[in-house]
TrEMBL record:
Keywords: DNA damage, DNA repair
Entry keyword annotation includes ATP-binding: no
GO CC, one annotated term: protein-DNA complex
Entry EC no(s): 3.2.2.21
Name of the protein in question: DNA-3-methyladenine glycosylase II
Leading EC class: hydrolase
GO biological process: base-excision repair, AP site formation; DNA alkylation repair
InterPro entries: Alkylbase_DNA_Glycosylase/TA, DNA_glycosylase, HhH-GPD_domain
Entries under SUPFAM superfamilies matching the protein: DNA-glycosylase
Organism: Paracoccus hibiscisoli
Length: 210
């Protein structure tokens, strides 16, 4: 089994951008206007997943504020969060469902290091079996914590809206249509996602992801 292609350095981002520009004239035109795309790598493990859960369905600013309070309280650590009471988690800004999800994930005993060796589909399957983790959250984790180069997250609304604008589409493409659009971008669809988020930020004046 071939090891997954990883994004480790800015040079990998640059290689991905060169591929996108080579296979698509729209990317070739747009990428120079976006400037350097961010690496956005972070250490893998419980804290990275907790941050992804915190960012679900809230604004970038709200997610940053909640995450800052969790960090200050040491609640980014698996054992600390697992043992925290409801009042402590609510004081940090977690909703009841997110507090329940994070406790469940903390108690699940997932082999975070073992995920590194799994192919994308199996790693996603391991994650979505945990409470509160859907495909989008699992894909975000694979992109930024594990550095997987070809994970895309076609269900992301900001990516869909960015694709609509970039390609001059009359309607926002749904997940299936966006996955079809992204086929030529393999094996660098995670770089394409970074590019679409950058386009969204440029076009809308706000972040598409926390």
């Amino acid at each position: 089994m071939a090891e997954p292609r990883l994004i480790l350095t800015q040079a990998d981002i640059d290689e991905g951008c060169a591929h996108l520009a080579a296979v698509c004239p729209v990317w070739a035109r747009v990428l120079p206007e976006l400037g350097p795309l961010p690496l956005r790598r972070q250490p893998d493990g419980f804290a990275a997943m907790a941050q992804a859960i915190v960012g679900q369905q809230v604004s970038v600013a709200a997610a940053a504020a909640i995450w800052g309070r969790l960090l200050a309280a040491g609640l980014h650590r698996q054992q600390t969060l697992r043992d925290a009471d409801d009042d402590t988690l609510r004081a940090a800004g977690l909703s009841r469902p997110k507090a329940r999800y994070l406790r469940g994930i903390a108690a699940a005993g997932l082999d975070w290091e073992g995920l590194r060796a799994l192919p994308d589909d199996k790693a996603i399957a391991e994650l979505v079996a945990l409470p509160g983790i859907g495909v989008w959250t699992a894909e975000i984790y694979l992109k930024f914590a594990l550095g997987r180069a070809d994970v895309f997250a076609a269900g992301d609304l900001a990516l869909q809206e960015a694709a609509r604008g970039m390609y001059g589409l009359s309607d926002r493409p749904g997940p299936a249509a966006l996955r079809a659009m992204a086929e030529p971008w393999q094996p660098w669809r995670a770089v394409a996602a970074r590019g679409l988020w950058a386009y969204y930020r440029w076009a809308k004046g706000r972040e598409g992801i926390s």
